[in-house]
Design goal:
MetI-like fold; MetI-like; MetI-like_sf; transmembrane; Glycine betaine/proline transport system permease protein; transport
């Protein structure tokens, strides 16, 4: 290597590794593709098959239970506007992809955050990895995902999971660490096992912060799903991508407005659930 004009072919090395990985792990990649495609198809079928008015009533009922009548009213008006803009099927496709990515991301993030809070070497390894994941430009995740899975919903879901995962891990670890040590010691003094201390003391007390992390996961997933339209994921992301390529301002505004409505709906739902935890209610009562 010329030390005066250095050039490290990192990109070539990564490309060669992905090609090698594709050859040796083809059955695994096919299985992952089948899982995500099947999960997405099932959710999309459940969301898009019923009459849209029925789905609006279901969404409004969820909003009412989680966050009150004002959010329920916004849900009715917002989703009716999405239908009036002829973006209903695209919105349900985006919502299905967000749910797929969030379920997998949360299933990974919460246990990993708990493990990082309890085992310091795990935390020391996980933190720089999360820094890397959060610093990498969002679109950069789509390239290797497309190389491994081709275009469609699977690369979009994979890229969304990687992009949305870090805040879930960080806030879960922080939440567990912030639980009062004296409360944990009291549980130990009464002979509680580590598993019961985690499930009966630490997780309930940490739940408001964990829910804040889940809220961030959902918001990041929604933003990434829009970018995933470039990978052929369809939905509102595909509409936004098509609007950009055709310089169609109207289509871009309609699809963007639908994304905002879904974002507010999901944010209020998760925020409302976080406020309904026993710890959050106790904190409000003590003020």
């Amino acid at each position: 290597m010329d030390f005066m004009n250095p050039r490290i072919p990192l990109g070539d090395w990564v490309s060669d590794f992905i090609d090698w990985f594709n050859r040796i792990a083809a059955p695994l990649l096919d299985g992952i593709d089948a899982f995500f495609s099947g999960f997405y198809d099932l959710l999309y079928l459940l969301l898009s098959s019923p009459l849209y008015l029925i789905m609006i009533v279901i969404f409004a009922a969820l909003a009412w239970l989680a966050a009150g009548w004002r959010v329920a009213l916004f849900t009715v008006l917002g989703f009716y506007l999405i239908r009036a803009l002829d973006q209903w099927n695209n919105a349900m496709s985006t919502l299905a992809l967000v749910l797929v990515a969030c379920v997998v991301a949360i299933a990974i993030a919460v246990p990993l955050g708990i493990l990082a809070a309890k085992v310091r070497p795990v935390s020391a390894i996980v933190r720089p990895v999360l820094d890397f994941m959060q610093s990498m430009p969002a679109l950069a995740y789509l390239v290797p995902a497309i190389v491994m899975f081709g275009v469609g919903t699977t690369p979009g879901a994979i890229a969304t999971i990687i992009f949305a995962l870090p805040p879930g891990v960080r806030l879960t670890e922080l939440a567990i660490r912030q639980v009062d040590g004296e409360v944990v010691e009291a549980g130990q003094a009464f002979g509680a096992t580590p598993g019961r201390i985690l499930t009966r003391i630490q997780l309930p007390l940490a739940m408001p912060t964990i829910m804040a992390g889940i809220n961030q996961v959902i918001m990041l997933a929604l933003s990434m799903v829009v970018l995933a339209g470039m990978a052929g994921a369809g939905g509102l992301g595909g509409q936004v991508t098509g609007a950009i390529s055709r310089v169609n301002v109207g289509l871009g505004v309609e699809a963007g407005l639908a994304v905002v409505i879904i974002a507010v709906f999901l944010d209020r739902i998760t925020g409302g659930l976080g406020n309904r935890t026993p710890t959050a209610r106790a904190q409000r009562a003590s003020r």
